[in-house]
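Q: Please design a sequence for this.
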C-alpha cells in the first residue's frame, strides 16, 4: 500500500492563507494553495507535482518575497517538510 499523507499547513508572513499538500511515497501528488498570487501559485503547484518532495523543498526553501523574510514558495517548502516528517513517523510507527 502506498504511503499517502494529506497535510494542511497555515502559512505565516505571506498572502496565502492555507496550503494543502498530498505526498505519496515521497512524491508530491498534489498541492492546493488558498490566497496569494493566483497564477504564480498555480504554476508553482503544477511544477512541483510529480517531483520528489525533498527536491521541491531544496528548490523552494529560502525564497523571499520582496522585503519579507519568506514567500509562498518558502512556506510551501515548510508544508512539504512537515508532510515528510509525518511520513517518517507513520513509517516508523
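A: Design:
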Amino acid at each position: 500500500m502506498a504511503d499517502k499523507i494529506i497535510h494542511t499547513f497555515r502559512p505565516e508572513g505571506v498572502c496565502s492563507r492555507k496550503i494543502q499538500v498530498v505526498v505519496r511515497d515521497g512524491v508530491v501528488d498534489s498541492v492546493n494553495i488558498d490566497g496569494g498570487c493566483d497564477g504564480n501559485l498555480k504554476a508553482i503547484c503544477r511544477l512541483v507535482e510529480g517531483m520528489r518532495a525533498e527536491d521541491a523543498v531544496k528548490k523552494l526553501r529560502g525564497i523571499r518575497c520582496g522585503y519579507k523574510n519568506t514567500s509562498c514558495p518558502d512556506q510551501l517548502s515548510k508544508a512539504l517538510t512537515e508532510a515528510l516528517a509525518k511520513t517518517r513517523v507513520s513509517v516508523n510507527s
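Q: Thanks. Anything notable?
A: The chain has a mean pLDDT of 93. The beta strands are 4-9, 16-24, 27-35.
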